[in-house]
Amino acid sequence: MKLATGIPMVDGWEATASKLQRRLQIELEEGKLSDGQGNFNLGRYQEILEEYGLRASLRSPKLTLVSDDQLPPKPELSLLEVWDMYCEYRKQGLRESVYHRMYQGQYKNYLQSAMEATKSEDALKIRNWLVENRHLKLVKQILSNLSKGYQLAVKNKLLTHNPYDGLADEIMTKGAKGKKQDEVESDNDVLDQSKAYTWDEVQIILNFVETKYPHWFNFLKFKFLTGCRTGEAVAFMWCDIEWEKERILIRRTYDRATKKFYPLKNDSTYKGELVRKFPMPRDGELWTSLKSIPQGEDTEIVFKSKGEKIINSAVFRNTYSGNKSIRIRGIIPQLIEQGKLIKQLSPYNTRHSFITHAVFDLGIDEKIVSKWCGHNIDVSNKHYQDVAIFAERVNPHLPQTTELDILKQQLQQQQELINKLLADKDKK
């Protein structure tokens, strides 16, 4: 079948043609270019061209079979070509922000760094460099996806073997040499106190920021007082504050890569919820902090950059953690130099700090804290809804009275009554 592609004959057209050829080969192998009755699916072909920013005139839908020995030899695919092909294949099933931030962002950057450092595309060299220099959990995910990409190319007869087959299997995700904790935002360890600042340390950080970096004070305090993720704090709007009900709503996040707002994930982590309700007692710390900010329109974000725009999370991270390459000292490194802190934790660990403080210092049930912060906990949906009703009545910043505390109080009251009765008897 002879069909135009609409590829303009300008510099770089060969790369576009090569990508389009591989994409069409995959679609053809999977039967997506057929209408189910043996006819070529012109509509699907046009959709693919439009994905690549192309438009073509479909002149002849008549199919012409070509034998294998008439086809031009297939070019050897580079590692990044395999990766881009796989990303295109996965694109429809991924959230837009995940596709851009992870698959075409962090994952791809890791691969490019490994190729530059090793000066090769040898699978074993790439794998070993990543293991030595990057977060192992992400390395395992990258190698697993890369293996699937090569397997896809083999299946579609674009390559003859998969050099990444099994390379991710023996990678453990703990104890990695060179692991960088601030590269990953994970909720698997939110109750790990070693990855949280004590509440006394939190006060040291906030006092320092209020004096030296006042612009970031309310934003950072909001993160410490709510345990929300950075993207959720960036996306927080005035319409998310319900003053009369004394609560705030966490219902969206902001993705820096796509520059878009997204609703919270609708998955098992949130038990199907798209909104989290967090108590804000009247005249409490959170209430007072938000009241100190000049109120804007409902759809305005609460926390803004110095230029009155949406906060850039990378700028905040550099301000918080420091960046030697661009000579930013950072809040936490300065406090470590002054001897006021002993460990460096990423901005994401403000979340860990709130959660461990609420659970271990204030005695708040972990299920309630999970409800507030949206991290995963294995309870039934019915129980989770029961917890939800109770969670709105709990003050997130005051110690809770446990059943044991109540029993102790009752025993003390009984003992006091017995002592009084004995004292009265002695008087008689």
Description:
The model is unreliable at 57-68, 174-184, 266-272 and 378-387 (pLDDT under 50). The strands form 2 sheets. This protein has a 3-stranded antiparallel β-sheet with strand order 1-2-5. A two-stranded antiparallel ribbon has the order 3-4. The protein has 4 domains: 13-70, no CATH class; 79-179; 200-391, hpI Integrase, Chain A (Orthogonal Bundle), CATH 1.10.443; 402-428. It has helices at 13-29, 42-51, 79-90, 96-118, 123-133, 136-155, 199-212, 217-226, 230-234, 285-291, 313-321, 331-337, 349-361, 366-373, 381-391, 403-427; strands at 241-242, 247-250, 252-255, 260-263, 276-279. It is mainly α and 428 residues long. Strand 1 and strand 2 (247-250) form a beta hairpin.
Q: How many E-type strands?
A: 5
Could you please say which CATH topology of the largest domain applies here? hpI Integrase, Chain A
Q: What distance lies between the first and last C-alpha atoms, to the nearest angstrom?
A: 115 Å
- Give the H and E element order: HHHHHHHHHEEEEEHHHHHHH
Mean of pLDDT: 79
The biggest sheet, with number of strands, parallel, antiparallel or mixed sense and barrel status, is: 3 strands, antiparallel
